[in-house]
Amino acid sequence: MADRIQTVEAFDKPARRAPADFEFIRFKTDGPVARFTLHRPEHNLLNEQMLRELADGVGMVAQNGTAKMIILDAGGKVFSAGVDVGEYTGERAFSMLAAFHDACIAMVEAPQPVLVIVDGAALGGGAELVAYGDLVVATPRARFALPEITIGMFPPLASTMFPHIVGPKRALELVLTGEAISAERARDLGLVNRLVPEAQLQAAVNELIGKITTQSGAVLGMAKRAVVAGMGMSLRDSLKNSMNIFLNELYRLEDSQEGLRALLEKRKPEWKNR
What is the pLDDT of residue 133? Predict the structure, then answer.
């Protein structure tokens, strides 16, 4: 073990794949929305290639800048049953975790809000992916668990993000017991934003898409950055960072000036997304 590379940053990233070359991720765009669908039947078990495809796709959309919103959902009855156990063997664990790290960081750093739709079980790595989304809509069929402790492991990505979402004591309970929680409990803890019946899922998602994509894409990105960047700072530094973005970046946008003019002129703003 001493001779092995032991940090995810040390791995060389392979060349970015184009969506046409994806095997386990389905990608499509619909107007201002870019949608990624986990597609590895039956249980959407995560492997290195799948996570690389997700990281590459989200990175491509973030760089392109034409979409205002990213959606992550899953095909089949299970959102994801976690990481394929074969990925934990030997050296593969290091490269798999590097890919997982890159996928989660891509979701966090994308200027577009990332909406995760969960209509089934999200276990282990599946629950970790959910945690790195900006917004989560789930149905009562969803359930969440971090069962790694039961096989002598712990979830490294969840151990970082869950305390921010549910608080350290609840995060410890979920990590240390491995017990599953219902969609209702996940909503109460703050892991899920909206819980809707299965029959109303698409309508609820469309409503949220409509509310977000009618805003300025440039301002959405700045607002997300102000919130996410502040998570790792003290209150004083977080406030300083947010005010800096507001005063020195937001006010330089054409859209921020258009928004103020539209308010004064009592009309709807016409965004240029810049």
Answer: 97
Strand order in the sheet with 69-74: 25-30, 33-38, 69-74, 114-118, 135-138, 194-195
**C-alpha span between 70 and 174 (Å, rounded):** 28
Calpha distance 152→185 (Å, rounded): 25
Which has the closest alpha carbon to 85: 131, 147, 31, 19? 147
pLDDT of amino acid 20 = 86
Handedness of CA 169, 132, 189, 217 (dihedral sign): positive
Residue 157 CB neighbours (<10 A): 20
- DSSP-derived secondary structure for 158-200: HHHHHHHHH-HHHHHHHHHH---EEHHHHHHHTS-SEE--GGG
114, 137, 248, 258 from 251: Cα distances, Å: 24, 32, 6, 11
Below-50 pLDDT ranges, the chain: 1-2, 5
Beta bridge partners of 180: none
Dihedral sign (CA 65, 66, 68, 69): negative
The pLDDT, as a whole number, for residue 1 is 36
Rounded distance between C-alpha atoms, residue 75 and residue 184, angstroms? 22
Q: What pLDDT, on a 0 to 100 scale, did the predictor assign at position 251?
A: 87
Q: Under a CB-based contact definition with an 8 Å cutoff, are residues 67 and 58 in contact?
A: no
The SS3 of residue 74 is: strand
- Only one residue has tokens 């301002």, namely 219
**pTM across the whole model:** 0.92
User: Could you identify the residue written with the tokens 């940053």?
Assistant: 9
Using CB atoms within 10 Å of the CB of residue 234, give its burial: 0 to 12 exposed, 13 to 18 middle, 19+ buried.
Answer: exposed
Position 206, amino acid = N
